[in-house]
């Protein structure tokens, strides 16, 4: 995904952008480009500590939120500190208001990314609206969604909408057509290609694997996720989630006749995007696929 200079200039002049499109991975890639554009003091050089940590979502001046939990929602605890939540209530490690209380430490701006903003519940959407109405001067926002119609109009009116067209599909490339999902798009820099290739081969070799092989497959998937995390700079959770996302798209095609299996992998991917420990998920995923 590469925005043209013109598009970047137009978008970066705004303080809040609502990116919508069919592919979550394209939207994720656009969010990274915008964050680098806003945050890097050398014009999105791709090499400074800010650019590199933005890519792995480890930049101190970047806060990224995704829906979590069984209901797959962005709740109020992502927007501001909450005192009383039920003891078993999961919550993100940070929240937008606390994050924006202080100016940026290293970057030119602080950037808040809210992925799948259509999953904001009412309370969280109201809190976000308040922040978008009077943001600190150093704050920029990227919201992404695959369901533009489900974003409340008050939030839409505060953001510049940006339609992300699906990237071109290379139909000869199995990695892109399998792991890219419905739109066939996959954000895969060259240095990550061997890792995706390894995952693809693992998936293919499972089709005639014995049931008892599940733990070995799980171990292999974990090690692929670890490599992905090391090479790309993604957090361990994001890398595990990416491996599961790929396996889910593969399973939908490879196990089309047992929709229960692929649905299990799709649900496992969502769980890991929430707060479930990704390490254990692979065991049950592979037990299900090989059953
Ligand atoms: Zn830079």
Question: What does this 3D model show about the protein?
Answer:
Helix content is 47%, strand content 9%. With 291 residues, the protein is of the alpha/beta class. It folds into two domains: 5-164, P-loop containing nucleotide triphosphate hydrolases (Rossmann fold); 174-290, no CATH class. A five-stranded parallel beta sheet has the order 2-3-4-1-5, covered by helices on one side. Helix 9 (214-232) crosses helix 12 (278-290), helix 10 (236-254) packs antiparallel against helix 11 (259-273) and helix 10 packs parallel to helix 12. Zinc ion (ZN) binds at residues 40, 42, 45, 48, 50-51.
- Per the CATH scheme, the topology name of the largest domain is Rossmann fold
Q: Please give the order of strands in the largest beta sheet.
A: 2-3-4-1-5
Low-confidence stretches: none
Mean pLDDT across every amino acid position: 86
Under CATH at level 1, the class of the largest domain stands as: Alpha Beta
- Which CATH architecture of the largest domain would you pick? 3-Layer(aba) Sandwich
Number of domains: 2
Oligomer: single chain
Strand content: 5-15%
CATH superfamily of the largest domain: P-loop containing nucleotide triphosphate hydrolases
């Amino acid at each position: 995904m590469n925005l043209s200079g013109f598009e970047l200039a137009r978008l970066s002049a705004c303080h809040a952008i609502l990116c919508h499109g069919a592919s979550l991975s394209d939207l994720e890639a656009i969010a990274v480009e915008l964050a680098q554009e806003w945050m890097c003091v050398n014009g999105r050089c791709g090499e400074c500590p800010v650019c590199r940590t933005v890519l792995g979502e480890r930049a101190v001046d970047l806060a990224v939120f995704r829906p979590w939990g069984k209901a797959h929602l962005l709740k109020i605890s992502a927007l501001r500190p909450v005192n009383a939540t039920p003891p078993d209530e999961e919550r993100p490690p940070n929240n937008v208001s606390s994050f924006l209380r202080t100016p940026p430490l290293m970057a030119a701006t602080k950037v808040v990314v809210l992925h799948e903003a259509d999953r904001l519940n009412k309370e969280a959407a109201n809190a976000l609206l308040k922040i978008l109405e009077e943001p600190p001067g150093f704050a920029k926002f990227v919201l992404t969604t695959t369901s533009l119609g489900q974003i409340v109009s008050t939030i839409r009116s505060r953001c510049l909408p940006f339609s992300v067209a699906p990237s071109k599909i290379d139909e000869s490339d199995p990695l892109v057509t399998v792991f890219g999902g419905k739109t066939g798009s996959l954000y895969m820099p060259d240095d990550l290609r061997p890792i995706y290739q390894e995952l693809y081969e693992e998936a293919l070799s499972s089709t005639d694997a014995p049931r008892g092989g599940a733990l070995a497959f799980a171990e292999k998937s974990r090690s692929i996720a670890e490599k992905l995390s090391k090479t790309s700079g993604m957090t361990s959770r994001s890398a595990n989630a990416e491996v599961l996302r790929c396996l889910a798209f593969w399973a939908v095609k490879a196990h089309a006749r047992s929709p229960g299996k692929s649905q299990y992998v799709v649900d496992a991917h969502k769980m890991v995007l929430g707060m479930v420990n990704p390490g254990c998920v692979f065991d049950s995923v592979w037990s299900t696929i090989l059953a």
